[in-house]
Amino acid sequence: MSFGGRELQLQHAHQASRSLRELMEETTDMPTASNCRVPSRTERSAPSARNKAEPASYHDGASPPPTDPYPPLYTHASTIAASEASSASEQSKLTSSSSRDSLPAHAPAADVRRETTPQKKQNPRRTKGHKPKWSRGGGSSDDIASNDRKAARHSSEGAPSPSPSRHLHHHLSSHTLAVSTNAQAYQGRLMAATFGGPSGDSRRGVSSPRPKGREAKNTFCRNVTIYGHCRYENTCPYIHDPAKLNQNENMKKRFNVDSPSFTPLQASTNGSLTPSSRGAAISPKAANAAVFTPKSQRSTASTPSLQPKEPAPEWHPQEFQEFVPQTFETQMVDSNTQAHALAYDPFNTSSTIPSITGTGHSGASINPYAQDPTLSSASYYQNAAGFQSSPAYHLYWPVGPQPTGLLAYQRTAHDFFIPDALREDLQKKAEIARQVVPNSSIPPIEQFHSLFCLDTSAQKNQALFGYNSWVYKAVSSKDGNTYALRRLENFRLTNETAIRSAQAWKRILNGSVVTIHEAFTTRAFGDSSLIFVTDYHPNSKTLAEEHFKQVPMQRFHGRQATSSHVPEQVLWGYIVQLASALKAIHGSGLAARLITPSKILLTSKNRIRLNACGILDVVQSETQRSLLELQADDLLQLGRLILNIANNNTSAHLNMQKSMDYITRGYTARLKECIQWLLNAQPSTGSPTSPTPPMHKDIDLFLGGIADQMATVFDSELHAQDTLTNTLARELESSRLVRLLVKLNFINERPELDASQHVPGSTGPAPSAMWAETGERYYLKLFRDYVFHQVDANGHPVTNLAHVLDCLNKLDAGADEKVALISRDEQNVLIVTYRELKRGVESSFQDLVRAARQSGK
Ligand SMILES: Nc1ncnc2c1ncn2[C@@H]1O[C@H](COP(=O)(O)OP(=O)(O)OP(=O)(O)O)[C@@H](O)[C@H]1O
């Protein structure tokens, strides 16, 4: 960055001041000592012919004394000098007030004189910009931003460091309205902007009256401020000893009621000063902003002020009526603040804010999450109601610790979302459920289309049904759901009543049974096929695939890997789930008839479902076996299944002695006893656990025998459910933030709502520029930069998920924490609270909703 222009400017100023100084020495009897201060308004108004003859001020802070060699101008030095000069200008205000007190009668004459002073015409900004206006109008953050823009521009010329501010996390609780991005230069810059600016041109229009005796006595010599000493200490009328200055009673405060006010130039959104747009502000609604009040009157929480010597002016944000949970009322709300709060609403969105007082509401009637029925967005945005005023922050605190304070290498996205394994499982299921075969030759059947064959083995086993069976995934055009279709190839229906038996299976709604929806025959495949429509469980596999799949033996260091031993708890889990399924089936007067590993689906970890139920009822409808027999056979098949799985052998039941020995060695006697009970055709003892008198063997008896294991499995299921619920709660946070992001993106940089289009229902003044670039939208845009577009000290993007979530959570909660927003040209700093940001989001979004409603969309 070039600073030549700045140097040139200051050098011109020096030369000008030197020639003017010579001129003044010739024409006036002023002392040669330079007192680098800006004269007060009253001083300038003194009816002195001498002052009229002083077209430029050698009192300019940037000008050296007459005999001083001009020091080389370094950029850094010039910045500091400007700051100090501004400080000195500020000191002069003290004198000006006292001078004014002593010379009240001169003021009118001074005004006349100023108008005729040519220097005033040269620099009209000087006169207008000389009043520090810390209250209404000038007190808005926009105005301060304007001041700061002037200062910051100067700063950026002098300090071309990459992105001095945006890479910082500006979670400030400071009550200063606007701060420079360079804290060290802040005070000087702000003062420079306020009291004449560092450019020097503003100071040329200031006359340099000879100091009055009292004024000189009260004023610290500016040469000492700038050069560290004053060559004319002996003759110079100003104070050179800081200790004396401190004793001066006028130093008790730097501003008083007589201090001239400052009306800054208006900031435009692109960072330039636009004198003509004085009436416009960054936020049009801020035109009604409240006065500044010292922070100390409102809250105890504050950060160290950047200007400790001055009463820290503060943006007094809209204090709206606020929902406070009764339980936390005393902790959360300061009654003074509440009372103060009701006075003012700068953003005036109160039409959608219910009247809630801190004490007058009941928790039942106020729901911070409730939708405002008056807003159309309520139907699809949670809490889309008008700003409900910061509901208690803690209400949004998600389950579990928040790892926002972690170092970069400690942060992982996993910390914020569901566990990886679960996410992967769900995503796999979704992906598999969507699988289609392009240009598939499989025809649609009835309402089912997009058939996808789930059978991966070409070898068909006719032993179970007597027919080749195929399983397809298909989508129903009736309801859009995905189903599994089991097709029995070349099935000929001889008895129509047989297929009606499927009706009874439709009523079996059990968690361990794959639900059957319908059965029909079709010729769509070119044959007569029987189709069973069941629930589709994506990414599931059969127990046969899980436990009996042939896998190449792994060898570790020459030793053969031990075969996979199925844990006993897994077997008990299978037993309990299948017992539950049989209870439902038998209780409905049906029998499963097919409990075999290839017809039991493993839909998630240790979660099984009895599949292919009801098929044998259709294809073997003419069987002579009684229901009791079939149900007893179900128990037998269950025992055989567990025995085979425990032995890792599909034919373990063919060698009972060996298999039971294996069970004896590998499992508890309890499991062995259970398996034996199931496998015995008609046990001599009544229950699987206790030798009681002989009873009829049925599922109820079995359930009674395994009650203890059912309780254990039930408890573990409850724990699993709790875990999933907690995971769901975390995802709930994510979905809440997604809604917030959607709103932000609806608002940010929206192109079509420009000045020519009045936003219906907008209560503020008509926008003076692009809707998306003015008012709340402007600082929402800066907020987006703050959240997503931060860069580090090297200008590299910061991709800190914790920061993003942190900011969005605070925005959603409308926290009172302040955040410093930096304009893209880094010339402005706006300090707003998350509460104001939230209000801006809601207000802007409601503008959009109203506009959409009016256009009938
Ligand atoms: N309802 C269903 N939902 C999802 N996938 C299923 C469903 N029913 C079966 N499958 C899958 O279809 C595939 C084939 O099932 P099938 O019952 O034909 O097993 P199989 O091993 O082919 O048995 P068989 O040897 O008797 O043909 C299996 O991978 C199974 O996971």
Describe the 3D structure.
With 857 residues, the protein is of the alpha+beta class. The chain folds into three domains: 4-132 and 195-247, no CATH class; 134-184 and 257-393 and 724-857, no CATH class; 435-549 and 563-705, Transferase(Phosphotransferase), domain 1 (Orthogonal Bundle). It is built from 28 helices and 13 strands. The protein is elongated. Adenosine-5'-triphosphate (ATP) is lined by residues 454-455, 457, 461, 464, 469, 471, 484, 514, 534-537, 540-542, 544, 598-599, 601, 611. One of its GO terms (biological process) is nuclear-transcribed mRNA poly(A) tail shortening.
List the helices and strands and how they pair.
Blueprint: H1 4-27, H2 41-44, H3 49-52, H4 75-102, H5 107-116, H6 118-122, H7 124-128, H8 141-158, E1 171-172, H9 183-194, H10 201-204, H11 213-218, H12 222-227, H13 242-247, H14 329-332, H15 335-341, H16 420-434, E2 448-453, E3 469-476, E4 482-488, H17 496-506, E5 516-522, E6 529-535, E7 541-542, H18 543-547, E8 555-556, E9 559-560, H19 568-587, E10 600-604, E11 607-610, H20 615-619, H21 627-647, H22 656-666, H23 669-679, H24 699-705, H25 707-747, H26 775-788, H27 801-813, E12 818-822, E13 829-833, H28 834-854
Helix pairs in contact: 4-8, 4-9, 8-9, 19-21, 19-24, 21-22, 21-23, 25-27, 25-28, 26-28, 27-28
The chain binds adenosine-5'-triphosphate.
